[in-house]
Amino acid sequence: MFAEHLGKTMEVYIDDMLVKSLKKFEHITHLEQCFKILNEFGMKLNPAKCSFGVPSGEFLGYIVTERGIEANPNQINAFLTMPSPRNIKEVQRLTGRIAVLNRFISKSTDKCLPFYQILKGNKKFRWDDQCEAAFGQLKTYLTTPPILSKPESDEKLYLYISVSNHSVSGVLVREDRGEQKPIFYISKSLTSPETRYTMMEKLALAVVISARKLRPYFQSHPIEVLTSHPLRSILHGPSQSGRLAKWAIELSEYDIEYKSRTSAKAQVLADFLTELPLDDGIFVETDSTWKLHVDGSSSKQGSGIGIRLETPTKEIIEQSFRLMFPASNNEAEYEALLAGLRVALAIGVEKIIAYCDSQLIVNQFAGDYEAKAPRMEAYLLAVKKLAGKFKEFKLVRIPRGENTSADALAALAFTSDPELKRVIPVECISSRSISVEETENDNSLEDEHFETPKPSSGNESSSLVVTRSRIKSQDDELTPPLELPKRKPRRKSKDQEVPIKEPSQIEQSLPVDVKVQETIEDPDIPSEPEPRKFILKDNTSANDWRADWRVPIKNFILNGELPSNKWQARKLKIISAKYCIIKESLYKRGVSDPYLLCIFGPEIEIVTSEVHEGLCGSHSSGRAMAFKIKRLGYFWPTMISDCIDYAKRCKKCQMHAPLIHQPSEILSSISAPYPFMRWSMDIVGPMHRSTRGVQYLLVLTDYFSKWIKAEAYISIQDSVVKTFLWKHIICRYGVPYEIVTDNGPQFISNDFEDFCSAWGIKLSYSTPRYPQGNGQAEASNKTILTNLKKRLNARKGGWYDELQPVLWAYRTTPRRATGETPFSLVYGMEAVVPAELNVPGLRRSEAPLNEESNSKLLEDVLDTIDERRDQSLIRLQNYQQLTARYYDSKLKNRPLNVGDFVLRRVFDNTKEEGAGKLGINWEGPYQITEKIRNGVYRLQDLDGNPVQRPWNIINLKKFYC
């Protein structure tokens, strides 16, 4: 009823209606609109329950005024006048009255915690001093309850969050003329598992609970979460827990920003932020120094490193790495320290103390020991460069006994399966953090983590170690651009072999080691064509680096950059919740796989070509290839569609594709309105040579009556066909209008075409290699051969003697299509068969005795022959419709147009010599030059030479290039 006014001038809840106006002079107009709707629906109001023109009023249990939403005084008085509970029932009544006022009470769960503990389990009632104190504090608080404000449309709102050992709380506020006013207070007690969450997880939970409780506000307003903790980095971090990833996706629906908390601008908010003492779990930043324990270990089984990072709030981050290269104990210790520092930098640590039990490393860093070996000098330089990125850094040596945790993590790396999913993930570092070759030459490093590749056209190679860390500044270039293995180019011939290096294997684990190997250029060798371009969903080529889909996501995660458009920004936030940055590379969090490396442009071409047709490629289908790429650890948004397109355009896959048997065009039926108008003609043979030396049959079938005329010959040339038509068709049944035949040489010769043209006979040819185009002839051939085989025993040469009895049996048998025998449709009556001679019927015994009556009956039959033929024609058309309906039910449309490239089915005369079962199924490509009719096309090869005959679509397949 009031849909167009709800939220604007009216609020309705069941039978409670409120008409509201911001300006006094508008109120009469709004009331008139309400009364008009009430009159339309015949509704009446009770004057005793109506109030008009009031500045404030009660709605849904709250007092609504121009200042905002206030608590109902009756509800507050009911609580304030309540005595201290004396039993469980009264405690339940107390919590019920508090629940009504929850939205006005800051941190209501913490204030009511003593009451809730009384109601837990089957405890005996005990009202102690703590309960009485909490009861008194609540009464004091509710003597001056806060007034909740109403937000304006599209106004930015602010969320303050707080956590304790037993609850999470929040308050949603708006800013009005520099003053922050509360909109809603939220509080939730923690379950037993939730109390064991880390501080960061509790803070994230507070945001999630607030979003669920205040969903309408979060959906219609941009929200700023004000906190002194790096919540956004934690939610988008690579080492987050499963629940954090789930919460990040859930919160991505809303327009949420995370900002540092400033001073509160209202006393009620200051109370919210300072009510709980520090020992109750309020996280206040006192010391921002982090502690890092590292250790490396090397043995015959392998090498591993372990890091243990401790936050200022005593939270622990543990990580274990397996070294995929031989390393000494000292090298492993250095790798552990470098990995730990990279992780610390990735999560934004500024002050850190590193603890190590290696005397050599600590003293070399302090300058007490000299790094003589080139590797040690390179490692030392790398550590110093990383240490310089912190505001405060200190390296301390500790006894081995105080470093047991990191030592256990290092041992875990090379003693357990790195593929095993654990709480502490075991991953791999595939190459050294220093370049051995470079240190031997000039004892210097281009970068503290890896050798920075320089532009080169030679066959140089570079390596990259991707670690689980994130870089905050784009100026800190810790990793080069990602390059994947290049595919081996196809060889032109045995004499033209391109010398290449073996492509490196794509690793399934993260981090990955990526080797770049280039082919040796030779001016005498023809260059390969440009790699196929992928067309993305936004019609942008994947090789176009200007449209890198990863850039907006990385900019948002690293710098918080958003598009100016509101909805694009919201969409980007939702998408970015599923991604994280690891060593300046974008990774997507998978469901079945932990992290998927996001790739673009040439990287997509390299991965898809290697997986589809590389050394280990299986030319799999598009979807299978996409899932295989995902299992290898790669991702891009249009992966499935691009892989389907790539597999669809693969020439080898198209050449060896299965043959097509499913119809692609609707069935076109051919019929004739009267006998002997249209004939189908075909040759059967060669058959077993008969006793008279013949082995071929020339068969013609009338489309209307299904009458078959056939003769046997030793061989059949165009002259034989002309003689047969003249003697057995034209001279006996008249000149036909049309003859349908295939493309046999006897039927397409110039002499035969001239003969038909002289007699005014229309010649229609079916398409090559498509017997269904002359289906009537094929059906007749099948019937003749089937009956001949049933009449013959071991003497196969006697088929000629059985031909006429077979034809007679066919002509005197009713056909399903017409419901009549061919003989009766031609001559108007049924033929006398041998059965009537052996057992005389009425026609054989009585009719000859009365010739006059018999003649009269024959005349009546001949007079009604046209009616019978018309009925047969109707039955024939119904039969053809049923057949077409069944045929068309299996149809799969494959539209082809002029200009399209197609492949043609390979037949025995066109298959590869000596290929056997390994030969291709399709040849070509050819180009369509003309559409004769539906499903029939004229072709030409790539040189422009036309194919002699048109081809049916059942033998064609679209070629994608």
Automatic annotation (TrEMBL):
Keywords: Nucleotidyltransferase, RNA-directed DNA polymerase, Transferase. Residues 454-466 have a biased composition (Polar residues). Residues 671-830 form the Integrase catalytic domain. Residues 435-512 are annotated as: Disordered. PROSITE patterns: INTEGRASE (PS50994), RNASE_H_1 (PS50879), RT_POL (PS50878). It comes from the Eukaryota. Residues 1-64 form the Reverse transcriptase domain. InterPro entries: Integrase_cat-core, Integrase_H2C2, RNaseH_domain, RT_dom, RT_RNaseH_2. GO terms for molecular function: nucleic acid binding; RNA-directed DNA polymerase activity; RNA-DNA hybrid ribonuclease activity. One of its GO terms (biological process) is DNA integration. Residues 286-415 form the RNase H type-1 domain. Coiled coil: none annotated. This is Reverse transcriptase domain. It comes from Arabidopsis suecica. The lineage of its organism: Eukaryota, Viridiplantae, Streptophyta, Embryophyta, Tracheophyta.
